[in-house]
């Protein structure tokens, strides 16, 4: 195998696949990165059993071939090479890879390419396409509601649901739920519900180009999902199990409705968070009534805070306790001047955006605190 390409292009491609390489170092093929060169394309693959990534980048290929190198070392070496062009060469039957850049010449021990678990694209998949900016937006507006522990694996993932003319991402930790919906350019023949590990979507979003939008083809078959865009093919296991019927979480009725200035509400809650952030449940009390809301928090160790904001309020007087940071999470991702809150005395509160009906959030009160 013999090829050359810009050092920066190789570094970028290795960065894209390196997270999928098994973290341990040794002769295990899963701890390696597969380099395959042919037809003026360098193909790089890595896997950790659950996630597999393949990246293709243009290269000048003089002699086709493939080899495996340790994932723990090659990306670090390439980062430290001088800018310009890097030349890569291995001899048939040799156990080393020669890497030259400028006056730097390096040899790395190689493995057997035939032992590497090559990535096979999904067989007869179904698929739909989303613009990269929409996929990034859907993830960023829902991922914060994912459960932080793995005791219930289904809640460590994000539901991607698509059908007819819309796609949704939904995340919940059972205390709050975030939903983002976008329109699809083409209707799906059959609706689909995929529960994707949050860390997988985080990696996919991290790999999306930031200099220009691209189309992301999302495909699935049996227990796998794949994302393909800009020379990247990213495949992962899905989370097994049934995601809860999230539509039932949205209340059908409300005791009150409040429209409040988003920036003022955020600032007041941030002040309350200074008091409650070290408390077990991080609580803040909201007292609603007479076109006002009183926001208060008390800690025996820190002190207390209380302030009143003007609101447009309809309904009976209510006093409800929430996790302060659950409210701040949604407010910091909101964009309008106003925010609308649909309130229940003994049930979840629905948060709606001023000019974006496709982004909804539900948060449950802290009972008994």
TrEMBL record:
SMART domains in UniProt: POL3Bc (SM00480)
Q: Name one GO biological process term.
A: DNA strand elongation involved in DNA replication
Q: Which residues form the DNA polymerase III beta sliding clamp central domain?
A: 129-245
Outline the extent of the DNA polymerase III beta sliding clamp N-terminal domain: 1-120
Domain DNA polymerase III beta sliding clamp C-terminal, by residue range, is: 248-367
Tell me which UniProt keywords the record has, alphabetically.
Cytoplasm, DNA replication, DNA-binding, DNA-directed DNA polymerase, Nucleotidyltransferase, Transferase
Q: Which Pfam families match?
A: DNA_pol3_beta, DNA_pol3_beta_2, DNA_pol3_beta_3
Q: What GO CC terms are in its UniProt record?
A: cytoplasm; DNA polymerase III complex
Subcellular location(s) per record: Cytoplasm
Keyword DNA-binding (UniProt): yes
Transferase listed as a keyword: yes
Q: Tell me the InterPro entries matching this sequence.
A: DNA_clamp_sf, DNA_polIII_beta, DNA_polIII_beta_C, DNA_polIII_beta_cen, DNA_polIII_beta_N
MF terms (GO), sorted A to Z: 3'-5' exonuclease activity; DNA binding; DNA-directed DNA polymerase activity
Which SUPFAM superfamilies does the UniProt entry name for this protein? DNA clamp
The UniProt entry lists the main location of this chain as cytoplasm
Q: How does it assemble?
A: Forms a ring-shaped head-to-tail homodimer around DNA.
Stated role: Confers DNA tethering and processivity to DNA polymerases and other proteins. Acts as a clamp, forming a ring around DNA (a reaction catalyzed by the clamp-loading complex) which diffuses in an ATP-independent manner freely and bidirectionally along dsDNA. Initially characterized for its ability to contact the catalytic subunit of DNA polymerase III (Pol III), a complex, multichain enzyme responsible for most of the replicative synthesis in bacteria; Pol III exhibits 3'-5' exonuclease proofreading activity.
Please state which protein family the record places this protein in.
Belongs to the beta sliding clamp family.
Protein name (record): Beta sliding clamp
